[in-house]
Amino acid sequence: MPGGGVKHLHIVAHGNRDKDGQLEYIGAVQDVTQRRLSEEALGKVRSELAHVARVTSLGALTASIAHEVNQPLSGIITNASTCLRMLAADPPNVDGARETARRTIRDGNCASDVITRLRALFGKKGATTEPVDLNLATREVIALSSNELQRSRVILRAELAGDLPPVTGDRVQLQQVILNLLLNASEALSGVDDRPRQLVIRTEREEGDRVRLTVQDTGVVIDPQNLEGLFDAFYTTKSGGMGMGLSVCRSIIESHHGRLWAAANDGPGATFSFSIPRGLEGMTGPHRLGAIRTPAVTDAAQVMRNP
Amino acid sequence: MVIRSLVSVVDDDESVRESLPDLVREFGFAVKAFSSAEEFLASDCVGQTSCLILDIAMPGMTGPDLQRELTRRRLEIPIVFITAHLDATVRPRMLERGAVECLFKPFSDTALLEALNAALRVN
After folding, report:
1. Which of A70, A198, B53, B100 could make a disulfide contact with B119, Cβ separation 3.0–4.6 Å?
2. Any chain A CB within 8 A of the CB of B20?
3. Which residue of A has its CA nearest to B82?
4. Contact A278/A168 with Cβ under 8 angstroms?
5. Is A165 helix (H, G, I), strand (E, B) or coil?
6. Which of B19, B26, B106 sits opposite A70 (nearest CB)?
7. Which pLDDT belongs to residue B82?
8. Whether A141 contacts chain B with CB within 8 A
């Protein structure tokens, strides 16, 4: 356009032969620039929100992270101290020193892995699209939060389906949803003292090429009437909470063309589940996540190429 | 032959059970490692242990649980608690309960040696 602006057009055309056998096209051109801009703005707001929610959960996880990092650091310092003492002995214990030096390197790598996992989870970046092994993603979240769960005396049982196909989506965003569901469930169990604080996380294949993840707690009894309200922005039962967690989770799952819902258990507690389709066809660029798909554009483009 | 004092290490973290005994052995003590409080209690080392290096947070029986159980059995083993949780209120609480020392991971070899020496003086 004059001035360097870009207009986005949506063209649909239909080819037909008239009674003389002449090819003719009937079509419509629609200016969708405004829609594209709103979509981009929405995507940006969504990723800002996701970042806020990540940082909020970071606070809850600080103790757990300190533990995760201190554990290998402790190994590094102990092994290196032992190594020096073995070398200083007369005669020096070279084999022992070599072994402790090897362990020092291994523990250093462990610490660095923790940092890599954290950066992936809390770093700020836009949504990306890649094949995600939901079981692996879940295990990483469990590893990060296991200490927090142990501290809250929560017993976590993971039932991860062996035949789970990969899904297409943003691994970090999905992990953030899983983390949120886990921490929420753990919190729901904090008042439970008369029975084990049990938590089940389950992945399974669903009909219609979908994959489902479920987090089930045995916490407080929930009034089914209140279930939908949980997903509203700023709904919170926590004194320090912003009430963004579940609302952001739902928006993330919806951008994966999935569904996130809660159900009261027959017994105490609640079950949170999300279900997402295995693959999102037509998703190529990183910005396509959450955008409205317009396959008509490709069809029309093909028609226009061979008039 | 010199009979070396036995130090028992109880920690659910495998890397601690692997690294700490070597260091304690370098200090000149005999050492045994256990992955849980239950395993330690079931062993024949309880009566011979001169000092216990004990992790606070463990699944099942925790460090303080084991301390209570030993007190109940009238076994006065000096305890050096170790923990990876940075909580400043833990140390005074543990010392009040009769621990010799409470070290936050990561701790230095000299801090550990001082704690062990203090524990054996109690003995």
Report:
1. B100
2. yes
3. A74
4. yes
5. coil
6. B106
7. 95
8. no
C-alpha–C-alpha distance, residues A36 and A31, integer Å: 10
Residue identified by tokens 């309880």 is: B46
User: Is the domain defined by B6-122 classed in CATH 3.40.50.2300?
Assistant: yes
Give the torsion sign (CA, A68, A73, A74, A79): positive
Helix (H, G, I), strand (E, B) or coil at A215: strand
Average pLDDT score, chain B: 92
What digits encode the pLDDT tens for the residues B97-109? 999 999 999 999 9
Q: Does A38 touch chain B (CB under 8 A)?
A: no
Verify whether the Cβ–Cβ distance B23 to A66 is below 8 Å.
no
CA distance A203 to A214: 6
- Mark the ranges of chain A whose per-residue pLDDT is less than 70: 46-64, 120-127, 222, 226, 228-245, 280-307
Residue type, A8: H
The residues, ordered by sequence, that sit 6+ positions from B123 with a Cβ below 8 Å of its Cβ are: B5, B50, B51, B78
The residue with tokens 């000096």 is B78
Query: Which residue blocks in chain A are alpha helix, DSSP H?
Result: 33-88, 94-122, 134-151, 171-188, 245-255, 295-305
The tokens for A34 are 């405004």
Q: Cβ of B76 under 8 Å from any chain A Cβ?
A: no
Residue-level pLDDT at B59 = 79
Angle at A67 between CA A64 and CA A72, to 5 degrees: 140
Nearest alpha carbon to residue B84 among B9, B16, B31: B16
| pTM of the predicted structure, to 2 decimals | 0.54
Partners of A110 on chain B (C-beta within 8 Å) are 15
User: Does residue A23 sit at the B interface (CB-CB below 8 Å)?
Assistant: no
- Whole-number pLDDT of residue A229: 67
Cβ-Cβ contacts under 8 Å between A and B: the total is 68
